[in-house]
Amino acid sequence: MGGGIVSCDVAPDSLYKEVYVEAPFPMKPIKEYIFPSTNFLVTDYGAVADGKTINTEAINSAIEICSRSGGGRVVIPKGEWLTGPIHMKSGVNLHLSEGAVLRFTDNPQDYLPAVMTSWEGMECYNYSPLIYAFDCDNIAITGSGVLAPVMNTWREWFGRPQPHLNALKTLYTMASTYVPVEQRQMAKNENNLRPHLLHFNRCRNVLLDSFSIRQSPFWTIHLYLCDGAIVRNLDVKAHGHNNDGIDLEMSRNILVEKCIYDQGDDGIVIKSGRNQDAWRLNVPSENIVIRNCQIRKGHSLLGIGSEMSAGVRNVYMHDCIAPDSVFRLIFAKTNHRRGGFIENIWVKNIKASKMQRVLEIDTDVLYQWRDLVPTYKDSLTRISDIYLDSILCDRAEVVYDLKGDVRLPIKRVEIKNVFVKEVTDTVKNIVNAEDIREENLRYNENS
Protein backbone atom coordinates (compact mmCIF):
# COMPACT_ATOMS: atom_id res chain seq x y z
CA MET A 1 0.00 0.00 0.00
CA GLY A 2 1.38 3.38 -0.97
CA GLY A 3 1.51 6.76 0.69
CA GLY A 4 3.95 8.07 3.22
CA ILE A 5 5.24 11.04 5.14
CA VAL A 6 6.63 13.60 2.76
CA SER A 7 9.14 14.86 5.29
CA CYS A 8 9.70 14.98 9.02
CA ASP A 9 11.63 18.01 10.22
CA VAL A 10 12.58 19.21 13.67
CA ALA A 11 10.83 22.48 14.47
CA PRO A 12 12.98 25.51 15.35
CA ASP A 13 12.30 25.18 19.08
CA SER A 14 13.44 21.51 18.94
CA LEU A 15 10.45 20.42 21.01
CA TYR A 16 8.49 18.98 18.11
CA LYS A 17 8.88 17.19 14.83
CA GLU A 18 6.55 18.40 12.11
CA VAL A 19 4.89 15.60 10.18
CA TYR A 20 3.78 16.68 6.71
CA VAL A 21 0.80 14.80 5.29
CA GLU A 22 -0.51 14.81 1.72
CA ALA A 23 -4.22 15.45 1.32
CA PRO A 24 -6.61 16.86 -1.32
CA PHE A 25 -7.30 19.79 1.02
CA PRO A 26 -5.02 22.20 2.92
CA MET A 27 -3.45 20.33 5.83
CA LYS A 28 -1.03 21.91 8.27
CA PRO A 29 1.87 19.80 9.54
CA ILE A 30 1.01 17.70 12.59
CA LYS A 31 3.28 18.25 15.57
CA GLU A 32 4.92 15.24 17.20
CA TYR A 33 6.30 16.08 20.61
CA ILE A 34 9.85 15.04 21.49
CA PHE A 35 9.64 13.76 25.06
CA PRO A 36 12.47 14.25 27.55
CA SER A 37 14.65 11.13 27.89
CA THR A 38 14.04 10.74 31.64
CA ASN A 39 12.44 7.41 32.63
CA PHE A 40 10.12 6.87 35.59
CA LEU A 41 9.76 3.14 36.32
CA VAL A 42 6.47 2.27 37.97
CA THR A 43 8.29 -0.25 40.17
CA ASP A 44 10.05 2.66 41.85
CA TYR A 45 6.64 3.85 43.02
CA GLY A 46 5.49 0.54 44.45
CA ALA A 47 3.99 -1.25 41.44
CA VAL A 48 4.09 -5.06 41.60
CA ALA A 49 3.49 -7.44 38.68
CA ASP A 50 2.00 -10.32 40.63
CA GLY A 51 -1.46 -10.38 39.07
CA LYS A 52 -3.05 -9.59 42.46
CA THR A 53 -1.79 -6.17 43.55
CA ILE A 54 -3.89 -3.31 42.19
CA ASN A 55 -1.31 -0.81 40.98
CA THR A 56 -3.55 2.20 40.31
CA GLU A 57 -1.94 4.44 42.93
CA ALA A 58 1.63 3.51 41.99
CA ILE A 59 1.14 4.09 38.25
CA ASN A 60 -0.69 7.37 38.73
CA SER A 61 1.94 8.56 41.21
CA ALA A 62 4.65 7.92 38.61
CA ILE A 63 2.62 9.85 36.03
CA GLU A 64 2.06 12.79 38.41
CA ILE A 65 5.74 13.04 39.37
CA CYS A 66 6.86 12.65 35.76
CA SER A 67 4.63 15.53 34.68
CA ARG A 68 5.70 17.76 37.58
CA SER A 69 9.34 17.04 36.77
CA GLY A 70 9.05 18.33 33.22
CA GLY A 71 7.91 15.16 31.49
CA GLY A 72 9.40 11.96 30.18
CA ARG A 73 8.53 8.27 29.99
CA VAL A 74 6.55 6.39 32.61
CA VAL A 75 7.73 2.84 31.95
CA ILE A 76 5.62 -0.28 32.46
CA PRO A 77 8.17 -3.15 32.47
CA LYS A 78 7.58 -6.68 31.22
CA GLY A 79 4.94 -8.50 33.25
CA GLU A 80 1.22 -8.42 33.97
CA TRP A 81 0.12 -5.35 35.92
CA LEU A 82 -3.35 -5.18 37.43
CA THR A 83 -4.69 -1.64 37.70
CA GLY A 84 -7.73 0.57 37.90
CA PRO A 85 -8.05 3.81 35.90
CA ILE A 86 -4.89 5.52 34.67
CA HIS A 87 -5.09 9.31 34.43
CA MET A 88 -2.59 10.91 32.08
CA LYS A 89 -0.87 14.25 32.67
CA SER A 90 0.84 16.71 30.33
CA GLY A 91 4.29 15.78 29.11
CA VAL A 92 3.94 12.07 29.90
CA ASN A 93 4.66 9.16 27.57
CA LEU A 94 3.19 6.00 29.07
CA HIS A 95 5.57 3.39 27.65
CA LEU A 96 4.51 -0.25 27.52
CA SER A 97 7.66 -2.37 27.34
CA GLU A 98 7.76 -5.53 25.28
CA GLY A 99 5.92 -8.21 27.24
CA ALA A 100 4.06 -5.68 29.41
CA VAL A 101 0.33 -6.21 29.90
CA LEU A 102 -1.88 -3.65 31.63
CA ARG A 103 -4.82 -5.65 32.96
CA PHE A 104 -7.62 -3.30 34.05
CA THR A 105 -10.04 -4.36 36.79
CA ASP A 106 -13.74 -4.69 36.04
CA ASN A 107 -15.08 -3.41 39.36
CA PRO A 108 -17.10 -0.27 38.53
CA GLN A 109 -16.36 1.19 41.99
CA ASP A 110 -12.68 1.36 41.01
CA TYR A 111 -13.64 3.89 38.33
CA LEU A 112 -15.15 6.43 40.73
CA PRO A 113 -15.26 9.32 41.35
CA ALA A 114 -16.92 10.09 38.05
CA VAL A 115 -15.06 12.24 35.53
CA MET A 116 -16.17 14.50 32.71
CA THR A 117 -16.57 12.38 29.63
CA SER A 118 -19.25 11.66 27.04
CA TRP A 119 -21.66 8.93 26.03
CA GLU A 120 -22.49 8.60 22.35
CA GLY A 121 -22.05 12.30 21.67
CA MET A 122 -23.54 13.68 24.92
CA GLU A 123 -21.31 15.13 27.64
CA CYS A 124 -21.74 13.84 31.17
CA TYR A 125 -19.96 12.66 34.30
CA ASN A 126 -19.50 8.91 34.14
CA TYR A 127 -17.18 6.15 35.30
CA SER A 128 -13.60 7.03 34.49
CA PRO A 129 -12.32 5.64 31.21
CA LEU A 130 -9.67 2.98 31.78
CA ILE A 131 -7.07 5.43 30.43
CA TYR A 132 -8.19 9.04 30.70
CA ALA A 133 -6.75 12.45 29.93
CA PHE A 134 -8.44 15.83 30.29
CA ASP A 135 -7.00 19.11 28.99
CA CYS A 136 -3.48 17.73 28.57
CA ASP A 137 -0.66 18.75 26.23
CA ASN A 138 1.94 16.44 24.72
CA ILE A 139 0.84 13.00 25.88
CA ALA A 140 1.56 9.56 24.46
CA ILE A 141 1.13 5.84 24.86
CA THR A 142 3.94 3.94 23.13
CA GLY A 143 5.73 0.61 23.14
CA SER A 144 4.80 -2.92 22.10
CA GLY A 145 2.88 -3.92 25.24
CA VAL A 146 -0.82 -4.70 25.56
CA LEU A 147 -3.90 -3.07 27.08
CA ALA A 148 -6.19 -5.93 28.10
CA PRO A 149 -9.10 -5.22 30.47
CA VAL A 150 -10.82 -7.83 32.55
CA MET A 151 -14.24 -8.03 30.89
CA ASN A 152 -16.60 -10.03 33.16
CA THR A 153 -18.65 -7.12 34.52
CA TRP A 154 -18.58 -5.11 31.32
CA ARG A 155 -19.94 -8.08 29.36
CA GLU A 156 -22.88 -8.21 31.76
CA TRP A 157 -23.45 -4.51 30.96
CA PHE A 158 -23.44 -5.03 27.17
CA GLY A 159 -27.21 -5.42 27.04
CA ARG A 160 -29.71 -2.59 27.09
CA PRO A 161 -32.19 -3.48 29.87
CA GLN A 162 -34.88 -0.98 30.80
CA PRO A 163 -32.91 0.80 33.57
CA HIS A 164 -30.11 1.46 31.08
CA LEU A 165 -32.54 2.77 28.47
CA ASN A 166 -34.13 4.99 31.12
CA ALA A 167 -30.69 6.40 31.91
CA LEU A 168 -30.05 7.13 28.24
CA LYS A 169 -33.41 8.89 28.04
CA THR A 170 -32.54 10.99 31.09
CA LEU A 171 -29.14 11.96 29.68
CA TYR A 172 -30.65 12.75 26.28
CA THR A 173 -33.27 14.97 27.89
CA MET A 174 -30.66 16.83 29.95
CA ALA A 175 -28.44 17.38 26.92
CA SER A 176 -31.40 18.47 24.77
CA THR A 177 -32.51 21.04 27.35
CA TYR A 178 -29.03 22.39 28.10
CA VAL A 179 -28.76 21.12 31.68
CA PRO A 180 -25.20 21.98 32.80
CA VAL A 181 -22.80 19.09 32.24
CA GLU A 182 -21.75 18.91 35.91
CA GLN A 183 -25.35 18.06 36.79
CA ARG A 184 -25.43 15.09 34.40
CA GLN A 185 -24.18 12.51 36.90
CA MET A 186 -24.59 9.12 35.25
CA ALA A 187 -22.32 6.78 37.27
CA LYS A 188 -25.01 5.54 39.59
CA ASN A 189 -27.75 2.97 40.16
CA GLU A 190 -28.28 0.59 37.26
CA ASN A 191 -27.45 3.13 34.57
CA ASN A 192 -24.58 0.88 33.46
CA LEU A 193 -23.03 3.37 31.06
CA ARG A 194 -19.82 1.52 30.29
CA PRO A 195 -16.54 3.47 30.28
CA HIS A 196 -14.32 3.93 27.24
CA LEU A 197 -11.07 2.02 27.16
CA LEU A 198 -9.10 5.12 26.15
CA HIS A 199 -10.66 8.59 26.21
CA PHE A 200 -8.57 11.73 25.67
CA ASN A 201 -10.73 14.81 26.21
CA ARG A 202 -9.70 18.32 25.08
CA CYS A 203 -6.05 17.37 24.60
CA ARG A 204 -3.37 18.64 22.25
CA ASN A 205 -0.51 16.80 20.54
CA VAL A 206 -1.37 13.18 21.19
CA LEU A 207 0.73 10.19 20.10
CA LEU A 208 -0.49 6.57 20.17
CA ASP A 209 2.15 4.24 18.75
CA SER A 210 2.83 0.50 18.46
CA PHE A 211 0.84 -1.07 21.32
CA SER A 212 -1.95 -3.65 21.13
CA ILE A 213 -5.47 -3.67 22.55
CA ARG A 214 -7.40 -6.79 23.42
CA GLN A 215 -11.07 -6.08 24.23
CA SER A 216 -12.80 -2.96 25.54
CA PRO A 217 -15.86 -2.15 27.67
CA PHE A 218 -17.17 0.42 25.16
CA TRP A 219 -15.65 2.55 22.38
CA THR A 220 -12.02 1.49 22.21
CA ILE A 221 -10.03 4.65 21.38
CA HIS A 222 -11.85 7.96 21.66
CA LEU A 223 -10.18 11.28 20.83
CA TYR A 224 -12.69 13.94 21.86
CA LEU A 225 -12.19 17.67 21.20
CA CYS A 226 -8.50 17.01 20.51
CA ASP A 227 -6.23 19.09 18.30
CA GLY A 228 -3.25 17.30 16.80
CA ALA A 229 -2.79 13.53 17.01
CA ILE A 230 -0.78 10.75 15.42
CA VAL A 231 -2.13 7.20 15.74
CA ARG A 232 0.09 4.57 14.16
CA ASN A 233 1.19 0.94 14.24
CA LEU A 234 -1.64 -0.16 16.56
CA ASP A 235 -3.12 -3.67 16.68
CA VAL A 236 -6.66 -3.39 18.03
CA LYS A 237 -9.10 -6.25 18.59
CA ALA A 238 -12.37 -5.80 20.48
CA HIS A 239 -15.53 -7.74 19.65
CA GLY A 240 -17.94 -6.63 22.35
CA HIS A 241 -20.95 -4.32 22.08
CA ASN A 242 -20.26 -0.78 20.73
CA ASN A 243 -16.60 -1.71 20.20
CA ASP A 244 -15.64 0.84 17.54
CA GLY A 245 -11.93 0.73 16.81
CA ILE A 246 -11.17 4.44 16.92
CA ASP A 247 -13.61 7.36 17.22
CA LEU A 248 -12.38 10.83 16.28
CA GLU A 249 -14.98 13.23 17.63
CA MET A 250 -14.91 17.01 17.27
CA SER A 251 -11.19 16.61 16.69
CA ARG A 252 -8.86 17.99 14.04
CA ASN A 253 -5.41 17.68 12.50
CA ILE A 254 -5.06 13.92 12.85
CA LEU A 255 -3.08 11.20 11.10
CA VAL A 256 -4.07 7.53 11.51
CA GLU A 257 -1.70 5.13 9.76
CA LYS A 258 -0.49 1.53 9.65
CA CYS A 259 -3.07 0.27 12.15
CA ILE A 260 -5.01 -2.99 12.28
CA TYR A 261 -8.59 -2.95 13.55
CA ASP A 262 -10.65 -6.08 14.25
CA GLN A 263 -13.91 -4.85 15.72
CA GLY A 264 -17.39 -5.76 16.88
CA ASP A 265 -18.64 -2.43 15.50
CA ASP A 266 -17.27 0.19 13.09
CA GLY A 267 -13.54 0.23 12.42
CA ILE A 268 -12.49 3.86 11.92
CA VAL A 269 -15.18 6.40 12.82
CA ILE A 270 -15.47 10.17 12.47
CA LYS A 271 -18.01 11.79 14.78
CA SER A 272 -18.77 15.31 16.00
CA GLY A 273 -21.25 15.19 18.85
CA ARG A 274 -24.99 14.83 19.15
CA ASN A 275 -27.66 17.47 18.60
CA GLN A 276 -27.79 20.35 21.14
CA ASP A 277 -24.53 19.41 22.87
CA ALA A 278 -22.62 19.56 19.60
CA TRP A 279 -24.31 22.76 18.51
CA ARG A 280 -23.25 24.28 21.84
CA LEU A 281 -19.63 23.21 21.42
CA ASN A 282 -19.56 23.94 17.67
CA VAL A 283 -16.26 22.17 16.86
CA PRO A 284 -16.27 20.20 13.59
CA SER A 285 -14.11 17.16 12.98
CA GLU A 286 -11.76 18.15 10.18
CA ASN A 287 -8.39 17.66 8.54
CA ILE A 288 -8.11 13.92 9.12
CA VAL A 289 -5.95 11.55 7.06
CA ILE A 290 -6.21 7.76 7.36
CA ARG A 291 -3.76 5.65 5.38
CA ASN A 292 -2.28 2.17 5.13
CA CYS A 293 -4.71 0.68 7.64
CA GLN A 294 -6.40 -2.71 7.70
CA ILE A 295 -9.89 -3.52 8.95
CA ARG A 296 -10.01 -7.27 9.46
CA LYS A 297 -13.58 -7.36 10.74
CA GLY A 298 -16.05 -4.59 11.44
CA HIS A 299 -19.34 -3.00 10.58
CA SER A 300 -17.54 -0.48 8.37
CA LEU A 301 -14.09 0.42 7.13
CA LEU A 302 -14.92 4.12 7.48
CA GLY A 303 -17.96 5.29 9.41
CA ILE A 304 -19.13 8.90 9.65
CA GLY A 305 -21.74 9.62 12.35
CA SER A 306 -24.33 9.11 13.40
CA GLU A 307 -23.20 11.59 16.08
CA MET A 308 -22.04 14.35 13.72
CA SER A 309 -23.99 17.48 14.65
CA ALA A 310 -21.00 19.84 14.72
CA GLY A 311 -20.03 18.75 11.20
CA VAL A 312 -17.42 16.57 9.50
CA ARG A 313 -15.23 17.79 6.67
CA ASN A 314 -11.84 17.26 5.05
CA VAL A 315 -11.38 13.52 5.57
CA TYR A 316 -8.98 11.56 3.34
CA MET A 317 -8.71 7.77 3.58
CA HIS A 318 -6.38 6.03 1.16
CA ASP A 319 -4.46 2.81 0.62
CA CYS A 320 -6.44 0.77 3.14
CA ILE A 321 -7.72 -2.80 2.98
CA ALA A 322 -10.64 -4.82 4.37
CA PRO A 323 -9.58 -8.40 3.52
CA ASP A 324 -12.44 -10.27 5.25
CA SER A 325 -15.90 -8.72 5.57
CA VAL A 326 -17.61 -5.51 6.59
CA PHE A 327 -21.25 -4.47 6.46
CA ARG A 328 -20.47 -1.24 4.63
CA LEU A 329 -17.13 -0.14 3.26
CA ILE A 330 -17.98 3.55 3.69
CA PHE A 331 -21.06 4.51 5.71
CA ALA A 332 -22.21 8.09 6.38
CA LYS A 333 -25.20 8.14 8.71
CA THR A 334 -27.32 10.88 10.22
CA ASN A 335 -30.97 11.73 10.94
CA HIS A 336 -33.38 14.65 11.03
CA ARG A 337 -32.33 15.62 14.59
CA ARG A 338 -28.62 15.99 13.93
CA GLY A 339 -28.08 19.06 11.78
CA GLY A 340 -24.44 19.70 10.95
CA PHE A 341 -22.81 18.72 7.69
CA ILE A 342 -20.74 16.02 6.00
CA GLU A 343 -18.58 17.35 3.20
CA ASN A 344 -15.30 16.92 1.36
CA ILE A 345 -14.80 13.20 2.08
CA TRP A 346 -12.21 11.44 -0.10
CA VAL A 347 -11.66 7.67 -0.24
CA LYS A 348 -9.04 6.32 -2.65
CA ASN A 349 -7.10 3.12 -3.36
CA ILE A 350 -9.08 0.65 -1.28
CA LYS A 351 -9.07 -3.14 -1.62
CA ALA A 352 -11.78 -5.17 0.08
CA SER A 353 -13.41 -8.59 0.07
CA LYS A 354 -17.16 -8.77 0.69
CA MET A 355 -19.76 -6.35 2.05
CA GLN A 356 -23.40 -5.34 1.85
CA ARG A 357 -22.68 -1.84 0.48
CA VAL A 358 -19.54 -0.21 -0.92
CA LEU A 359 -20.94 3.25 -0.16
CA GLU A 360 -24.04 3.98 1.88
CA ILE A 361 -25.38 7.38 2.90
CA ASP A 362 -28.47 7.20 5.09
CA THR A 363 -30.25 10.25 6.53
CA ASP A 364 -32.70 8.29 8.70
CA VAL A 365 -30.52 6.33 11.14
CA LEU A 366 -32.00 6.52 14.66
CA TYR A 367 -31.40 3.07 16.16
CA GLN A 368 -33.06 2.68 19.59
CA TRP A 369 -33.50 6.45 19.87
CA ARG A 370 -36.36 6.58 17.35
CA ASP A 371 -39.03 5.70 19.91
CA LEU A 372 -37.05 6.20 23.10
CA VAL A 373 -36.94 10.02 23.02
CA PRO A 374 -38.80 12.79 21.18
CA THR A 375 -37.44 15.17 18.57
CA TYR A 376 -36.60 18.41 20.37
CA LYS A 377 -35.61 20.18 17.17
CA ASP A 378 -35.84 19.16 13.54
CA SER A 379 -32.46 19.93 11.94
CA LEU A 380 -31.28 18.47 8.65
CA THR A 381 -27.74 17.50 7.68
CA ARG A 382 -26.07 19.01 4.62
CA ILE A 383 -24.20 16.26 2.73
CA SER A 384 -22.05 17.02 -0.30
CA ASP A 385 -18.79 16.35 -2.08
CA ILE A 386 -18.15 12.67 -1.44
CA TYR A 387 -15.44 11.18 -3.68
CA LEU A 388 -14.61 7.50 -4.22
CA ASP A 389 -11.72 6.62 -6.53
CA SER A 390 -9.98 3.32 -7.27
CA ILE A 391 -11.97 0.88 -5.13
CA LEU A 392 -11.61 -2.86 -5.76
CA CYS A 393 -14.06 -5.26 -4.08
CA ASP A 394 -14.71 -8.96 -4.48
CA ARG A 395 -18.43 -8.93 -3.70
CA ALA A 396 -21.17 -6.52 -2.67
CA GLU A 397 -24.93 -6.66 -2.51
CA VAL A 398 -25.15 -3.03 -3.69
CA VAL A 399 -22.41 -0.74 -5.01
CA TYR A 400 -23.87 2.51 -3.72
CA ASP A 401 -27.01 3.34 -1.79
CA LEU A 402 -27.84 7.03 -1.35
CA LYS A 403 -30.88 7.87 0.78
CA GLY A 404 -31.17 11.63 1.19
CA ASP A 405 -33.89 13.76 2.72
CA VAL A 406 -36.29 15.32 0.22
CA ARG A 407 -35.96 18.65 2.06
CA LEU A 408 -32.16 18.74 1.66
CA PRO A 409 -30.92 16.25 -0.94
CA ILE A 410 -27.42 14.80 -1.01
CA LYS A 411 -25.27 16.66 -3.55
CA ARG A 412 -22.15 15.87 -5.57
CA VAL A 413 -21.13 12.26 -5.12
CA GLU A 414 -18.46 10.89 -7.48
CA ILE A 415 -17.96 7.15 -8.06
CA LYS A 416 -14.78 6.73 -10.11
CA ASN A 417 -12.74 3.65 -11.03
CA VAL A 418 -14.82 1.38 -8.79
CA PHE A 419 -14.70 -2.33 -9.64
CA VAL A 420 -16.88 -4.89 -7.87
CA LYS A 421 -16.31 -8.42 -9.16
CA GLU A 422 -19.75 -9.64 -8.11
CA VAL A 423 -22.89 -7.61 -7.36
CA THR A 424 -25.54 -9.86 -5.82
CA ASP A 425 -28.52 -7.47 -5.60
CA THR A 426 -28.51 -4.15 -7.42
CA VAL A 427 -25.88 -1.72 -8.60
CA LYS A 428 -27.28 1.45 -7.13
CA ASN A 429 -30.16 3.00 -5.25
CA ILE A 430 -30.54 6.78 -5.40
CA VAL A 431 -33.24 8.64 -3.47
CA ASN A 432 -33.16 12.43 -2.97
CA ALA A 433 -29.65 12.89 -4.32
CA GLU A 434 -28.38 15.28 -7.01
CA ASP A 435 -25.32 15.53 -9.24
CA ILE A 436 -24.24 11.89 -8.92
CA ARG A 437 -21.34 11.14 -11.23
CA GLU A 438 -20.06 7.78 -12.40
CA GLU A 439 -16.83 7.19 -14.28
CA ASN A 440 -15.51 3.72 -15.03
CA LEU A 441 -17.81 1.82 -12.69
CA ARG A 442 -17.41 -1.90 -13.43
CA TYR A 443 -19.08 -4.93 -11.96
CA ASN A 444 -19.86 -8.61 -12.55
CA GLU A 445 -16.68 -9.21 -14.47
CA ASN A 446 -14.19 -12.02 -13.96
CA SER A 447 -11.15 -9.76 -13.93
Description:
This protein has 447 residues and is mainly beta. Helix content is 10%, strand content 49%. It contains five helices and 31 strands. The strands form three sheets. The protein has a 26-stranded parallel beta sheet that branches. It has a three-stranded antiparallel beta sheet with strand order 1-2-3, with no helix packed on it. The protein is globular and about 60 Å long. The protein starts with 7 loop residues before the first strand and ends with a strand.
Question: Topology of this structure?
Answer:
Layout: E1 8-10, E2 16-19, E3 30-33, E4 39-41, H1 56-68, E5 72-76, E6 79-83, E7 86-87, E8 92-96, E9 100-104, E10 115-119, E11 122-126, E12 131-134, E13 137-143, E14 146-147, H2 152-156, H3 162-176, E15 198-201, E16 204-209, E17 212-214, E18 221-224, E19 227-232, E20 235-238, E21 246-249, E22 252-257, E23 260-263, E24 268-271, H4 275-281, E25 285-291, E26 294-304, E27 312-333, E28 341-362, H5 369-372, E29 382-403, E30 410-431, E31 433-443
Parallel strand pairs: 4-5, 5-8, 6-9, 7-12, 8-13, 9-14, 12-15, 13-16, 14-17, 15-18, 16-19, 17-20, 18-21, 19-22, 20-23, 21-24, 22-25, 23-26, 24-26, 25-27, 26-27, 27-28, 28-29, 29-30, 30-31
Antiparallel strand pairs: 1-2, 2-3, 10-11
